[in-house]
Amino acid sequence: MLPKDPIILLSYMNTQLRDFYPSLEEFGDSTGENPEEIASVLEQIGYRYDPEQNRFVRK
To answer: Taking a C-beta distance cutoff of 8 angstroms, is the pair 2, 10 a contact?
Structure first.
């Protein structure tokens, strides 16, 4: 289950991507979470997924 708070979700996602998953899609495939929904929540607080860095970064 993902954190509900967007700031905590941001920290959680970047840690997961850094330590365990080579891409957001791989995270979704492995966990069953929807990458588009995660990206949408984080976009609302001004972050977007950067595939080259494999992390969410400030827009």
So the answer is: no
